[in-house]
Amino acid sequence: MERSKINIKKSTVSMCQTAVCAALLCVLSPLAIPTPLSIAFTLQVMIVILSALILKPLQALAAQVIYTLLGIAGLPVFSGYQSGFGVIAGPTGGFILGFIAASFFVSLLKGSPNGKFALPRYVIVAVAVGIPCIYIPGIVGFMLASGKDFMTAFALVAAAFIPVDLIKCVAAALLACRLSRRAVRAPER
């Protein structure tokens, strides 16, 4: 009986963590700073990476899928308060699909939050796995939607944004390490 109560508590905590990360995506992703290009600066990459670093792989995947499905269903949660399947099929839709892949693979490969090498490991995984998982589908999606070649697409939707997204990855890793340390110290009730 006691074991059942522990499992229920862990499941509830897991669902709440997933829901909070999905809610963060829904609240912060629409906030966009427009640029002359068709892509705006947002906090999406940081929140996707942060979620991946603090959640287990299936939780991170679920948070991202929930966010994506809410946007497809019509809630204005995509960049610039957009919504609908047309956003997924449009020039930036590949990035949203890339967020799903990044959330799962970064979480899967991040390792333990414990130890003195957690921060460098988190940064390396976020940059080496997260950035390609986001940018490859994003560039391909832009190429398909716009008819541009790879180099033109890369120049338009990636080149200027990668340095900023690298900073977002480092910020997400710092925040994830800090949150993980606090979670470990939190008393069990």
Question: What is the fold's blueprint, element by element?
Answer:
Elements: H1 2-28, H2 44-54, H3 57-72, H4 85-89, H5 93-109, H6 118-146, H7 150-157, H8 162-185
Helix pairs in contact: 1-2, 1-3, 2-3, 2-5, 2-8, 3-5, 5-6, 6-7, 6-8
Key descriptive features of the protein:
single chain, 189 residues, mainly alpha, Arp2/3 complex 21 kDa subunit ARPC3, 8 helices, disordered C terminus
Low-pLDDT ranges: 184-189
If you consult CATH, what is the topology?
Arp2/3 complex 21 kDa subunit ARPC3
Into how many domains do the coordinates divide? 1
Given the helix and strand composition, which structural class is it? mainly alpha
CATH C-level label? Mainly Alpha
> What is the approximate shape?
globular
> Quick one: how many beta strands?
0
Distance N to C terminus: 17 Å
User: Largest sheet, described in full?
Assistant: none
Write the CATH architecture name: Orthogonal Bundle
Strand content: under 5%
Order of helices and strands: HHHHHHHH
Helix content: over 70%
Q: Mind telling me the C-alpha Rg?
A: 17 Å
Per DSSP, the total helix count is: 8
Q: Quick check: average pLDDT?
A: 89
Protein model, in words:
The chain has 189 residues and is mainly alpha-helical. It has a single domain (2-180), classed as Arp2/3 complex 21 kDa subunit ARPC3, CATH 1.10.1760.20. Helix content is 72%, strand content 0%. The chain has eight helices and no strands. The chain has helices spanning 2-28, 44-54, 57-72, 85-89, 93-109, 118-146, 150-157, 162-185. Helix 1 (2-28) crosses helix 3 (57-72) and helix 2 packs parallel to helix 8.
